[in-house]
Amino acid sequence: MRIETDPGSLTADALAALIEWYQANGVDTAIDEVAIDRFAAPPPEQVFAPAPAPAFESPTADAAAFSARAPSAGPTFAPAPPRAPETPDLDIEAARIAAASAETLDQLRETLGRFEGCSLRLTARSLVFADGNPAARIMLVGEAPGREEDLQGVPFVGRSGQLLDRMLAAIGLDREQVYIANVVPWRPPGNRTPTPEETAICRPFVRRQIALVDPDFLICLGGAAAKELLDTREGILRLRGQWLGFDTGKRTIRAMATLHPAYLLRQPLQKRLVWRDLLALKSALASETR
Ligand code: URA
Protein backbone atom coordinates (compact mmCIF):
# COMPACT_ATOMS: atom_id res chain seq x y z
CA MET A 1 0.00 0.00 0.00
CA ARG A 2 1.41 3.38 -0.90
CA ILE A 3 0.22 6.60 0.71
CA GLU A 4 1.03 9.43 -1.67
CA THR A 5 -0.15 12.21 0.65
CA ASP A 6 2.58 14.07 2.50
CA PRO A 7 1.62 13.53 6.17
CA GLY A 8 2.96 17.02 6.93
CA SER A 9 0.15 18.50 4.83
CA LEU A 10 -2.63 16.76 6.83
CA THR A 11 -4.63 18.44 9.57
CA ALA A 12 -4.56 16.91 13.05
CA ASP A 13 -8.07 15.48 12.49
CA ALA A 14 -7.10 13.95 9.16
CA LEU A 15 -3.96 12.43 10.70
CA ALA A 16 -5.99 10.98 13.59
CA ALA A 17 -8.47 9.50 11.07
CA LEU A 18 -5.58 8.02 9.07
CA ILE A 19 -4.07 6.39 12.17
CA GLU A 20 -7.49 5.04 13.16
CA TRP A 21 -7.90 3.60 9.68
CA TYR A 22 -4.48 1.93 9.90
CA GLN A 23 -5.38 0.43 13.28
CA ALA A 24 -8.70 -0.89 12.00
CA ASN A 25 -6.73 -2.67 9.30
CA GLY A 26 -4.34 -4.21 11.81
CA VAL A 27 -1.43 -1.81 11.21
CA ASP A 28 -0.95 -0.73 14.79
CA THR A 29 2.75 -1.10 15.42
CA ALA A 30 5.31 1.39 14.17
CA ILE A 31 8.63 -0.39 14.28
CA ASP A 32 10.61 2.26 12.43
CA GLU A 33 10.45 6.03 12.16
CA VAL A 34 10.09 5.73 8.41
CA ALA A 35 7.65 3.41 6.65
CA ILE A 36 9.27 0.82 4.40
CA ASP A 37 7.55 -0.31 1.21
CA ARG A 38 8.90 -3.84 1.03
CA PHE A 39 7.11 -4.50 -2.26
CA ALA A 40 8.85 -1.68 -4.09
CA ALA A 41 11.53 -2.72 -6.58
CA PRO A 42 14.89 -1.19 -5.63
CA PRO A 43 15.69 1.85 -7.75
CA PRO A 44 18.52 1.04 -10.15
CA GLU A 45 21.04 3.19 -8.29
CA GLN A 46 20.59 1.01 -5.20
CA VAL A 47 21.93 -2.07 -6.98
CA PHE A 48 25.43 -1.16 -5.96
CA ALA A 49 28.66 -2.42 -7.28
CA PRO A 50 30.84 -3.09 -4.26
CA ALA A 51 32.64 0.07 -3.17
CA PRO A 52 36.43 -0.16 -3.19
CA ALA A 53 37.54 -1.29 0.23
CA PRO A 54 39.13 1.56 2.20
CA ALA A 55 42.44 0.88 3.88
CA PHE A 56 41.22 0.71 7.45
CA GLU A 57 43.67 1.25 10.20
CA SER A 58 41.62 1.38 13.36
CA PRO A 59 37.95 1.25 14.31
CA THR A 60 37.96 5.06 14.28
CA ALA A 61 39.51 5.06 10.85
CA ASP A 62 36.80 2.56 9.80
CA ALA A 63 34.09 4.94 10.89
CA ALA A 64 35.74 7.92 9.21
CA ALA A 65 36.24 5.96 6.01
CA PHE A 66 32.62 4.83 6.13
CA SER A 67 31.24 8.32 6.52
CA ALA A 68 33.56 9.56 3.80
CA ARG A 69 32.07 6.95 1.48
CA ALA A 70 28.46 7.64 2.43
CA PRO A 71 26.77 9.56 -0.38
CA SER A 72 25.69 13.03 0.70
CA ALA A 73 22.40 12.80 -1.21
CA GLY A 74 20.88 9.56 -2.32
CA PRO A 75 18.66 6.84 -1.01
CA THR A 76 18.08 7.03 2.72
CA PHE A 77 17.66 3.83 4.65
CA ALA A 78 15.43 3.42 7.65
CA PRO A 79 17.17 1.71 10.54
CA ALA A 80 16.69 -2.05 10.47
CA PRO A 81 13.91 -3.26 12.75
CA PRO A 82 15.09 -4.88 15.96
CA ARG A 83 15.69 -8.54 15.36
CA ALA A 84 16.52 -11.43 17.63
CA PRO A 85 20.06 -12.65 17.04
CA GLU A 86 20.24 -15.57 14.66
CA THR A 87 21.74 -17.86 17.27
CA PRO A 88 19.99 -16.89 20.48
CA ASP A 89 21.81 -19.51 22.57
CA LEU A 90 23.31 -16.89 24.83
CA ASP A 91 19.93 -15.25 25.34
CA ILE A 92 18.36 -18.62 26.14
CA GLU A 93 21.10 -19.31 28.67
CA ALA A 94 20.66 -15.83 30.16
CA ALA A 95 16.90 -16.44 30.39
CA ARG A 96 17.48 -19.78 32.09
CA ILE A 97 19.75 -18.24 34.72
CA ALA A 98 17.48 -15.23 35.26
CA ALA A 99 14.34 -17.34 35.60
CA ALA A 100 15.97 -19.82 37.97
CA SER A 101 17.12 -16.96 40.21
CA ALA A 102 13.53 -15.84 40.91
CA GLU A 103 12.24 -17.24 44.19
CA THR A 104 8.80 -15.63 44.03
CA LEU A 105 6.36 -14.51 41.35
CA ASP A 106 7.08 -10.87 42.17
CA GLN A 107 10.79 -11.48 41.64
CA LEU A 108 10.04 -13.29 38.40
CA ARG A 109 7.97 -10.35 37.16
CA GLU A 110 10.77 -7.93 38.07
CA THR A 111 13.40 -10.13 36.44
CA LEU A 112 11.36 -10.32 33.25
CA GLY A 113 10.87 -6.58 33.33
CA ARG A 114 14.64 -6.12 33.28
CA PHE A 115 15.42 -8.95 30.86
CA GLU A 116 16.73 -7.65 27.55
CA GLY A 117 17.38 -10.91 25.72
CA CYS A 118 14.07 -11.01 23.82
CA SER A 119 13.55 -8.43 21.10
CA LEU A 120 9.74 -8.62 21.50
CA ARG A 121 10.05 -6.27 24.46
CA LEU A 122 11.30 -3.56 22.11
CA THR A 123 8.06 -3.38 20.16
CA ALA A 124 5.65 -4.19 22.98
CA ARG A 125 4.19 -1.49 25.15
CA SER A 126 3.86 -3.65 28.28
CA LEU A 127 5.07 -6.77 29.94
CA VAL A 128 1.91 -8.87 30.18
CA PHE A 129 2.84 -11.06 33.11
CA ALA A 130 -0.31 -12.57 34.60
CA ASP A 131 -3.80 -12.11 35.92
CA GLY A 132 -5.88 -13.94 38.49
CA ASN A 133 -5.01 -15.57 41.75
CA PRO A 134 -1.46 -16.89 42.28
CA ALA A 135 -2.84 -19.31 44.88
CA ALA A 136 -5.36 -20.81 42.44
CA ARG A 137 -5.47 -24.53 41.75
CA ILE A 138 -5.89 -23.92 38.02
CA MET A 139 -3.37 -22.19 35.78
CA LEU A 140 -4.32 -21.29 32.20
CA VAL A 141 -1.63 -20.52 29.64
CA GLY A 142 -2.23 -18.89 26.26
CA GLU A 143 0.16 -18.11 23.43
CA ALA A 144 0.98 -14.39 23.53
CA PRO A 145 -0.77 -11.11 24.35
CA GLY A 146 -2.71 -9.28 21.66
CA ARG A 147 -3.25 -5.56 21.20
CA GLU A 148 -5.73 -5.04 24.01
CA GLU A 149 -3.58 -7.07 26.43
CA ASP A 150 -0.52 -5.03 25.45
CA LEU A 151 -2.41 -1.78 26.07
CA GLN A 152 -3.70 -2.89 29.48
CA GLY A 153 -0.75 -5.08 30.54
CA VAL A 154 -3.17 -7.88 31.48
CA PRO A 155 -3.62 -11.23 29.70
CA PHE A 156 -6.87 -12.19 27.99
CA VAL A 157 -8.78 -8.92 28.23
CA GLY A 158 -9.71 -8.56 24.55
CA ARG A 159 -12.51 -10.38 22.76
CA SER A 160 -11.02 -13.82 23.35
CA GLY A 161 -10.50 -12.95 27.01
CA GLN A 162 -14.16 -12.03 27.34
CA LEU A 163 -15.08 -15.39 25.85
CA LEU A 164 -12.63 -17.08 28.24
CA ASP A 165 -14.40 -15.41 31.16
CA ARG A 166 -17.73 -16.77 29.91
CA MET A 167 -16.23 -20.26 29.49
CA LEU A 168 -14.97 -20.18 33.07
CA ALA A 169 -18.29 -18.85 34.33
CA ALA A 170 -20.03 -21.79 32.65
CA ILE A 171 -18.38 -24.09 35.21
CA GLY A 172 -18.73 -21.67 38.09
CA LEU A 173 -15.24 -20.13 37.98
CA ASP A 174 -13.94 -16.61 37.70
CA ARG A 175 -10.50 -14.98 37.65
CA GLU A 176 -10.18 -15.28 41.43
CA GLN A 177 -10.12 -19.05 41.03
CA VAL A 178 -7.60 -19.27 38.21
CA TYR A 179 -4.20 -17.83 37.35
CA ILE A 180 -3.65 -16.78 33.73
CA ALA A 181 -0.39 -16.28 31.82
CA ASN A 182 1.06 -16.71 28.34
CA VAL A 183 3.96 -18.63 26.82
CA VAL A 184 5.36 -15.31 25.61
CA PRO A 185 4.73 -12.26 27.85
CA TRP A 186 5.21 -9.55 25.21
CA ARG A 187 2.94 -8.88 22.27
CA PRO A 188 4.56 -9.85 18.95
CA PRO A 189 4.23 -6.91 16.52
CA GLY A 190 1.01 -7.03 14.52
CA ASN A 191 -0.02 -10.16 16.47
CA ARG A 192 2.25 -12.39 14.44
CA THR A 193 3.10 -15.83 15.77
CA PRO A 194 6.14 -15.76 18.07
CA THR A 195 9.19 -17.20 16.34
CA PRO A 196 10.72 -20.44 17.67
CA GLU A 197 13.67 -18.36 18.94
CA GLU A 198 11.41 -15.96 20.84
CA THR A 199 9.51 -18.89 22.33
CA ALA A 200 12.74 -20.61 23.32
CA ILE A 201 13.98 -17.47 25.07
CA CYS A 202 10.71 -17.08 26.99
CA ARG A 203 10.49 -20.81 27.84
CA PRO A 204 12.46 -20.73 31.13
CA PHE A 205 10.28 -17.86 32.38
CA VAL A 206 6.90 -19.48 31.77
CA ARG A 207 8.16 -22.77 33.19
CA ARG A 208 9.41 -21.00 36.31
CA GLN A 209 6.08 -19.17 36.56
CA ILE A 210 4.24 -22.52 36.53
CA ALA A 211 6.62 -23.93 39.15
CA LEU A 212 6.11 -20.90 41.42
CA VAL A 213 2.31 -20.93 41.09
CA ASP A 214 2.38 -24.70 41.62
CA PRO A 215 -1.20 -25.28 40.46
CA ASP A 216 -2.92 -28.68 40.53
CA PHE A 217 -4.18 -28.29 36.96
CA LEU A 218 -2.53 -26.72 33.94
CA ILE A 219 -4.77 -25.84 31.01
CA CYS A 220 -3.08 -24.98 27.71
CA LEU A 221 -5.23 -22.66 25.65
CA GLY A 222 -4.66 -23.53 22.01
CA GLY A 223 -2.17 -25.51 19.99
CA ALA A 224 0.80 -23.17 20.47
CA ALA A 225 0.68 -23.37 24.28
CA ALA A 226 0.04 -27.12 24.11
CA LYS A 227 3.02 -27.73 21.82
CA GLU A 228 5.25 -25.63 23.98
CA LEU A 229 4.26 -27.01 27.37
CA LEU A 230 3.13 -30.55 26.62
CA ASP A 231 6.09 -31.28 24.38
CA THR A 232 4.01 -32.73 21.60
CA ARG A 233 3.56 -32.34 17.87
CA GLU A 234 0.00 -33.68 17.98
CA GLY A 235 -2.59 -31.33 16.47
CA ILE A 236 -4.78 -29.55 18.99
CA LEU A 237 -7.99 -31.18 17.76
CA ARG A 238 -6.59 -34.63 18.59
CA LEU A 239 -4.79 -33.56 21.72
CA ARG A 240 -7.51 -31.59 23.44
CA GLY A 241 -9.49 -33.07 26.26
CA GLN A 242 -6.83 -35.60 27.33
CA TRP A 243 -5.32 -35.45 30.79
CA LEU A 244 -1.54 -35.60 30.59
CA GLY A 245 1.23 -35.02 33.11
CA PHE A 246 3.30 -31.85 33.41
CA ASP A 247 6.46 -31.91 35.46
CA THR A 248 6.82 -28.63 37.35
CA GLY A 249 10.23 -29.63 38.68
CA LYS A 250 8.68 -30.29 42.09
CA ARG A 251 5.90 -32.67 41.13
CA THR A 252 3.82 -33.89 38.23
CA ILE A 253 0.53 -32.09 37.87
CA ARG A 254 -2.41 -32.79 35.57
CA ALA A 255 -2.40 -30.92 32.30
CA MET A 256 -4.93 -30.62 29.50
CA ALA A 257 -5.03 -28.74 26.23
CA THR A 258 -8.22 -27.19 24.97
CA LEU A 259 -9.14 -24.96 22.05
CA HIS A 260 -8.09 -21.31 22.15
CA PRO A 261 -10.97 -18.85 22.67
CA ALA A 262 -9.79 -16.88 19.60
CA TYR A 263 -10.33 -20.03 17.53
CA LEU A 264 -13.80 -20.44 19.06
CA LEU A 265 -14.67 -16.91 18.00
CA ARG A 266 -13.97 -18.00 14.42
CA GLN A 267 -15.43 -21.51 14.78
CA PRO A 268 -18.28 -21.22 17.29
CA LEU A 269 -19.54 -24.75 16.57
CA GLN A 270 -16.38 -26.09 18.23
CA LYS A 271 -17.55 -24.70 21.56
CA ARG A 272 -19.21 -28.06 22.17
CA LEU A 273 -15.73 -29.67 22.34
CA VAL A 274 -14.52 -27.10 24.83
CA TRP A 275 -17.64 -27.61 26.88
CA ARG A 276 -16.59 -31.27 27.32
CA ASP A 277 -13.09 -30.18 28.37
CA LEU A 278 -14.52 -27.74 30.87
CA LEU A 279 -16.76 -30.43 32.37
CA ALA A 280 -13.71 -32.72 32.68
CA LEU A 281 -11.88 -29.93 34.52
CA LYS A 282 -14.85 -29.31 36.80
CA SER A 283 -15.13 -32.95 37.75
CA ALA A 284 -11.35 -33.29 38.30
CA LEU A 285 -11.49 -30.24 40.56
CA ALA A 286 -14.33 -31.74 42.58
CA SER A 287 -12.77 -35.18 42.89
CA GLU A 288 -9.25 -34.05 43.76
CA THR A 289 -9.43 -31.69 46.67
CA ARG A 290 -6.22 -30.22 48.05
N1 URA B 1 -4.49 -14.65 23.19
C1 URA B 1 -3.55 -15.23 23.97
O1 URA B 1 -3.05 -16.31 23.67
N2 URA B 1 -3.20 -14.57 25.09
C2 URA B 1 -3.73 -13.42 25.46
O2 URA B 1 -3.36 -12.89 26.51
C3 URA B 1 -4.70 -12.85 24.62
C4 URA B 1 -5.08 -13.47 23.49
From TrEMBL:
Q: Which GO terms describe its biological process?
A: DNA repair
Please list the residue ranges annotated as the Uracil-DNA glycosylase-like domain: 129-279
Q: What is its EC number?
A: 3.2.2.27
Q: Which Gene3D superfamilies match?
A: Uracil-DNA glycosylase-like domain (3.40.470.10)
Q: Does the keyword Heme apply?
A: no
- Enumerate the GO terms in the molecular function aspect: 4 iron, 4 sulfur cluster binding; metal ion binding; uracil DNA N-glycosylase activity
Q: Which domain of life is it from?
A: Bacteria
Q: Which Pfam families match?
A: UDG
CDD domains per the UniProt record, alphabetical: UDG-F4_TTUDGA_SPO1dp_like
- Keyword GTP-binding found: no
- InterPro entries, alphabetically? UDG_Type-4/5 (IPR051536), Ura-DNA_glyco_family4 (IPR005273), Uracil-DNA_glycosylase-like (IPR005122), Uracil-DNA_glycosylase-like_sf (IPR036895)
Q: Which SUPFAM superfamilies does this one have? A: Uracil-DNA glycosylase-like
Query: What UniProt keywords are attached to this protein's entry?
Result: 4Fe-4S, DNA damage, DNA repair, Hydrolase, Iron, Iron-sulfur, Metal-binding
Catalysed reaction(s) here are: Hydrolyzes single-stranded DNA or mismatched double-stranded DNA and polynucleotides, releasing free uracil
* PANTHER family listed in its UniProt record: TYPE-4 URACIL-DNA GLYCOSYLASE (PTHR33693:SF1), TYPE-5 URACIL-DNA GLYCOSYLASE (PTHR33693)
Which family is this protein grouped under? Belongs to the uracil-DNA glycosylase (UDG) superfamily. Type 4 (UDGa) family.
Q: What is this protein called?
A: Type-4 uracil-DNA glycosylase
